[in-house]
Each structure stands twice: as structure tokens, then as C-alpha cells.
Amino acid sequence: MPKDPLATRDVGASVRPLTRARVVDYVARDRPRSPTLSRGTSETVILGMAGELAALGTALCWAFTSLWFAAAGRRIGSLPVNLLRMPVALACLVAYGAIVRGHALPLDADAHTWTWLTISGLLGFAFGDLCLFRALVLIGPRLGSLVMASAPIFTALFGYVLLDERLATADLAGMVLVTAGIAWAVTARAPAGSLTIVEGPVLARGVGLAVLGAIGQAAGLVTAKYGMGEYDAFAATQVRVIVGVLAFILAVSVRRQWGAVLRGLADRRAMTMVAAGGVLGPFLGVGLSLTAAQLTNAGVAASLMAMQPILVIPLAVAFAHEKVGLAALGGAAIAVAGVVMLVS
Q1: Each residue of 267-278: pLDDT tens digit?
Q2: Residue 284 domain-assigned (yes or no)
Q3: Are the C-beta atoms of 315 and 60 separated by less than 8 Å?
């Protein structure tokens, strides 16, 4: 029986990037098909866009989690939320590994994978998410998500340095549009009656933390892509979550926040949001983001994930009762136009 060309690499084997072209070639040429399926079918097209679809799925997951984590953070603090969501995600990843891979823990990963995914977990979870969650508390999920839309810029730059992924003129133009859209939305005054009006030092601090969160997310995504190669994306996520758990335990201990963590566990409403966010965030959302990074250019994947602010706007209006002005909508539209240029 021929070996599946997309199978997980053996421990110690050389890493060959799992690209969209390889997926399309595999589906169209090598994969066993039923007589009703032929080259060029919708199955081939859909699987050929698996990376882009995974990135959009990530954006949808993170749109919900930004609202839940922001609300939970206001109740129990951003650091307890960061820690408490991790065991939920880890339990889901253990179940996934045991059922799908036959490995409850990622012990089949080689030293190269563990090293780079550890770095990725520290950059993405420990640094990036810590900054982002505090920003969500300070400036709200809609504005925080808009600033996080700058992540594709940093991802493309890091991808060029670490992965040698080249940038075309259209890519640079798209980055300018993303930045301009974010700047417009950030500098616009919130409409009268908004529940999340922030100005002055609080706005500056929140935006700065969100930018640092975007940098951490970008660095975490690129280093994860470099480290995991063809290794299972959800198993790679499990490595990052394990690292994140240890990092947040250390952060809570250093800041003496264990009392806040225990009080958070007693807050049923906050824990409901944390649990739901743990499933859609560090489990499903991050797993899909690494899948997207495997199957397409890291900058393109990050750009599609940047659709999150557009998805957050109706959710923020419906559930967080935010009032959205024309400037916010205009800034979001310009940012999305930049995303389209980056993808096309």
C-alpha cells in the first residue's frame, strides 16, 4: 500500500513544508478516490483552499472569544482568565490526541519541533495573549480586535526573515491599507452612549498593549510554522498550550495572583465564559490557525485571520451593546480591503 504523502513525518526526519500546492496535488493525483470523484471536482477545490478556510474559521472562533474573555477579564482579571482557559484547552487537546492520533500527549514530536513550539508558545501565549487580554479589558473587544488586525504586517515581516516568504508590491499596499484602517478606527471618537468609551492614557495604553499582542501573535505563528513542519497542527497546539500553562503559573506566582484565581473559580458566570473561550480559543481557534499556517503563506493566513474585527462588530453590538460609528465601520472596511489585497 502506498504511503500517504501527507502523513506525519517520522521523528528526526527532515521537514518538508506542507503547502497548499502539495495538498491539491495529493487530492488530485495521489489520494484514492471514488469513481464519482475526478480531478477538478469541488472536493479538490475545497481541500485546495483548506488553509484559507482554516484561517477564516480561526477568525470566527476568535471573534467570539474576544467578547467572552473581555467580559470575564472585567470580572476576575485578565491574568486569571489567561491561566484558567488553558486547562480547558489542554483537556480538549488530550482528548483529540487520544482519539484522532492515538497519542494523548505530543511525545512523538522531535527535539526541533519541541524547541521551536516552546519558543512559539512563549511568544504567542505567554507574551502576546497576556498583552492582548489586558488590552481587551482596557479598550474593549471591538477596538482591541481592530488593532490586532495589524498582525499580518508583523507576520509577513517575520515570515520573510525566518521562512524566506517574499512580499510583492500588492502585499505592501495591502499592509498600508490595513494600517490606515486601524489608525482611522483607533483615532475616531466613540459614539455617544457607548459603554466602552476610552480616551487619553487608557486608550494609549490599551492600543499599545494590543500592538504588542499583535507582534506576539505574529511571532508565535511564524515560529510555530517553522518548528512544526508537517507535524499535526493540533498536537503542535498542545505543545504550545503546555508551555503556556507553565508560563502563566509562573506569572501568577510572581504577581501573587493566586487569590484572584481562586475567586475566579468561584465566579460561575466568568468561568462559563472562560470555559467556552477555552474551547473556541486555544483549542479550536489556535489549532485552525496552525493548520492555516501549514497549508498557505503565513502572511496570507494571518491576513484572513484579521477578518476577526469585522466579525466582532455585529457581535459587540448585539451582546456587548456597543454603539458603532461610521468611522469604525469605515476603518474596518479599509482594513479588510487591505486584507483582500494581501490575499489576492
Answers
A1: 999 999 999 999
A2: yes
A3: no
